[in-house]
Amino acid sequence: MPATLYLLSISFLLGLLGLTLHRIHFMSILICIETMMLALYLMMTTLTSFTNTATTAIMPILLLAMSACEASSGLALLVATSRTHGTDHMKSLNLLKC
């Protein structure tokens, strides 16, 4: 169990590192956020399967539902910004223009 959780926490930290360092395109930001959510989902599923408790079994399902909502709203924002600005570069987005 510790090796699995160690690898999953490293994958979460790599997603966080990618989020902080590669903020050029909006699509890369969304991919890094989805990587972090997938690592969290796998960590919750692993902990739930190792503890065998019925009360925490719903938590991975709720996280999966929330990440699906986050992904759909992120893709909707990506489509809206690419239609209005013509690109997904973060430098071209300005809050005063929108």
TrEMBL record:
* UniProt keyword annotations, A-Z: Electron transport, Membrane, Mitochondrion, Mitochondrion inner membrane, NAD, Respiratory chain, Translocase, Transmembrane, Transmembrane helix, Transport, Ubiquinone
Key word Electron transport present in the record? yes
UniProt GO molecular function: NADH dehydrogenase (ubiquinone) activity; oxidoreductase activity, acting on NAD(P)H
Q: Which residues cross the membrane?
A: 6-22, 29-51, 57-80
- Name the reaction it catalyses: a ubiquinone + NADH + 5 H(+)(in) = a ubiquinol + NAD(+) + 4 H(+)(out)
Alphabetical GO biological process terms: ATP synthesis coupled electron transport
Q: Where in the cell is it found?
A: Mitochondrion inner membrane; Mitochondrion membrane
Q: Would the keyword Nucleotide-binding turn up in this protein's UniProt record? A: no
Gene3D superfamilies reported for this sequence: 1.10.287.3510
The membrane topology of this protein is: Multi-pass membrane protein
Q: What is its EC number?
A: 7.1.1.2
**Cellular component, GO annotation:** mitochondrial inner membrane; NADH dehydrogenase complex
Q: Name one Pfam family in it.
A: Oxidored_q2
Kindly give the InterPro entries that the UniProt entry links to this protein.
NADH_UbQ_OxRdtase_chain4L/K (IPR001133), NUOK/Mnh_C1-like (IPR039428)
What family is it from?
A: Belongs to the complex I subunit 4L family.
Function of the protein: Core subunit of the mitochondrial membrane respiratory chain NADH dehydrogenase (Complex I) which catalyzes electron transfer from NADH through the respiratory chain, using ubiquinone as an electron acceptor. Part of the enzyme membrane arm which is embedded in the lipid bilayer and involved in proton translocation.
Question: What's the protein called, per UniProt?
Answer: NADH-ubiquinone oxidoreductase chain 4L
Q: List the gene name.
A: ND4L
